[in-house]
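Sequence, structure tokens quoted for completeness.
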Amino acid sequence: MDIQHLVDRLEDLVDEGRHLFGTKFTMVDEERALEIIDQMRISVPDEIEKAARTIQQRDRVLAEANEEAARIVQQARQHSEDLIDDQEMVKQAKVRAEYVIEQAKIEADKITREADEYVMAQLSQLEQQFAHTLDEIRNGIQIMQYDEPAAVEIEPAQQSVDLERSDISPEPISFDRPAQAPASSHL
């Protein structure tokens, strides 16, 4: 299953959860959330397998380029051996063979460079997808761990004090850093 689809399902699960009136807390079905996370763990190796296939493609392209270069070199050598009869022709054949060899090396280097760029682009894209997915997982974990409502009874006298201090806003959650416990957590 696609990792992005699983992340969407986890997000839907949070959206479907029951919101506790007057708070930012949401209750979610723990069993469904854990099931989605288990499927994510299974899906990640599939993404790694895709990267391995990309590397195999690169290696195949490099092998084909090397075979082509060897074939061209062999043809150049054979051609130069056929022209040995005449010294002038031998000189020309050597020059031509060196040129063909050089061109084959240049072509092989070009194919290798393009294959490496392709693999690097694929791996970079995969890294971005993993980073995005990891951020979403961390945010989901943070929401699941630190936004769980605690059943606390407040005495009437304390309620009035809390209402007077309602102008103090909680520290906002930053989604740009890894999940961590809030500094002022009393739970």
In short: The mean pLDDT is 78. The CA atoms of residues 65 and 109 lie 9 Å apart. Residues 3-148 form one domain.
